[in-house]
Amino acid sequence: MENTGRSDKPRKHKWKFRRVGGFHQVRLEEGADLAALDELDQKLWVALSCPTQGLDLDTGTLGLIDTDKDGRIRVPEVRAAVRWACSLLRDPGQLLAGSPSLPLEAINDQTPEGLQVLHSARHILSNLGKADAVEISVEDTAGTERIFAQTVFNGDGVIPAGSADAPEVKAVIADIMACLGPERDRSGQDGVNQAKVDTFFAQAQAYADWWAQASQWAAKILPLGEKTAAAAAALAAVRAKIEDYFTRCRLVAFDARALGAMNRSEADYAALAGKELSNTTADVAALPMARIEAGRPLPLRGDVSPAWTKALAALRDLAVEPLLGARDGLSEKDWHDLLERFAPYEAWVAAKAGSVVEKLTLPRVQEILAGPAREALTALIAKDKALEPEANAIATVDRLVRYNRDLVRLLTNFVSFAHFYSGDEPAAFQTGALYLDQRRCDLCVRVDDPAKHAAMAHLSNFYLAYCDLTHKSTGEKMTIAAAFTAGDSDNLMAGRNGVFYDRKGQDWDATITRVVDNPISIRQAFWSPYKKLSRWISDQIAKRAAAHDAAATNRLTSHVTDLEKSAQAGKAPEPKPKFDLGVIAVLGVVISGLTAAVAQLTKAMADMTWSPWAAFGIPAIFVAISTPSMILAGLKLRQRNLGPLLDANGWAVNAKAKIGLWFGRRLTSVAKRP
After folding, report:
1. pTM of the predicted model, to two decimals?
2. Is the C-alpha dihedral spanning 506, 510, 514, 520 positive or negative?
3. Segments making up each domain of the chain, as ranges
C-alpha cells in the first residue's frame, strides 16, 4: 500500500480548483479527474484520514475501502478504491453520478476481470429472476444469502446437509455439526467445511482406537466389564477420605498420644451442637469416616460417619464385594489391592481420545468410520470449491456496485468538502439538525466522549452545545455537538430541551448537557457590554437587597425575642421603628443615583450645540462602547475552523476549513416572521 503523498507518475492532468472556506479545493467534475487521482498531491487533499463510523455513508462500503480493517480510511486506500473502480468501468465518469444502479453496459468487458464481473452480474440477476435486466443495484447484490438461496454449490467450501443426495451422508453432516458446531454457508444455511470433516474423522478414529484398546485388554482395563465405570466412580467419590482414615490410623499406631486429636476433641463436637445438622453438612463431612484406632479396618457398614454411610455402601456393593468378596470392613491391605485393580482403568480413562464424538456413542462412531461418508463429503466440498472464482466474482460485483453508488460521496467529503460548502446536500459528517431556541442548527456531529471531544473542539472557535439524545420510540441514546453560528447565547444553557432530526427524518429528544462558550455573532457582541452592565446592576441590587433583607429579618427576630422576654418579666416592650429604615436608605441611594445619571445626561444634551451632525452623537457613543467587543468577536468569528471540530472525532483534516459570517448564517437559521 502507498504510504507517501507523492506519486512517481509524471503529472499530466490539468486540475481545476475553487477557493472556498479560505483555501483552494480541487474540483472533481470529469471521469478524467477520477482516473488521475493518483497524481493529485496529497497536500491538496482536504482530509488525510477519517473514521469508518459516525458518518452518513454506507458502513459496508467503508468496510470494503478500509482494507487493513483498522477502522480508518486513509489516502492510499481511497486512491486504491478509485483506481480499482476505474479499471472495471468503460468510463470513470460513471462514478460521478452516484447512482444506486450500475448499467451492465458500463462494465469494461475488455479485461479478464471485467469480463468475469459482467458474467457474475448476469448470474446474480438470473438467480434473482431478473435475467433480462440491463442494470444491477446494491439491493440486488447486498444479500448474498438471497443470491445463493437456490444454488446447491456456491464456491465457499461449505456444504449444508441439502447438498448431499444420500440420506446417510446427510446424517453424517448433521453429526459433525452436532459435535463440532456448524459453519455458515453463503446461502445462510448451516453446513461443514473440509477442516471440520477432517477434524471429525480424526476424532472419531481416535475414539474408536481408544475403545479398541479396552477391548484388547478387557480383563485388565475393565475388571467388572460394563460396570467398571460405575465402580470406579464410587471409588473416586471416597478415595481421598479413605486415604485420610488410614493415614490417621497409622499416626495413632506410630504414637498413641495422637488418638484423641485424630478423633477430634469434645470442643469440636460442641461447636457442632449449636448448628442445624444433616448428613450433607460440610462440618459433619469433615469429620473422620469412622472412629480412629491403630490398625483398625474401615467399617463398610454400621459404625460409620452419617455423612459417608451412603458413599461407603456404594463402594462396598459396586467395587469391594464384586472384586474382593463379601466383608464388613476394609483393611488397609484390601484398600491398596482395590486401588491396584482399578489403576489400569484409570490410566485408560486418563488417555481418553476423541471425546468430542463421545455423544454419538461407540456403535454410531464405528458405523460412520466403516461407511463411505468421508469420501463423499470430500468430493462434495471439492465440487463446491471448484466454483470459488465465480462465487468470489459475485462479491466483486457487490463491491463495484457499492463504489458506483458511494465513492463520489466519499470523495466530496474527503478529497474536498464540496458537499459541505456547496450546501446542495449535507456533508457526511453532519448527522442531522437540532431545533432549539428558535433556531435550526445544521452543523451537528456525533460524539462518543463529550469531555474528550470538547478538549480539542474548543479550538474551532464555535459556540458548541453538547446534547444527549434519546429516541422516543426505541430508547436508543446518542450524543451530538451542535455548532450555533447565528443569534446569541442568552438562552442557551445546560438543561435546555430541544428536538433533533437525524438524516432519516427520525426525531430525538435533545437536552443540552454542556456548552463551549465562544462568540456567535457581531450582533451579540454589540449588545454584550450593555447586557453585562445590566447584569452587574441587577446583581448589585440583588446583593444589597438580600443583605438588608437578612438584616431586617435579624432585627425582627431580635424584636420578637425581646417582646417575649419583656412579657415574661412583666415589663412594657420598648417601641421599635415602624419602618425598616435600612431598606428605605438603599432605595434612596438607588433612586438618587439614577436621578443623578439622568440629570447629567440631560445637562449634556442641553449643553450640546445641535446641528445636523449632532443627531449622530448618541449613536456614536453606543458604537464607541460596543466597538472593542465587536472587534474581539469579529476576530474570533473570522477564525472559526471546522478542522478541530472534526479532528476531535478522529479525522485528520488537512486544511483550515473556515466558516465565515455569511456561511455561518446558513448553518444556523434563525426564526423569522413571514
Report:
1. 0.60
2. positive
3. 1-155+389-429, 159-216+361-385, 223-353, 431-567+624-651
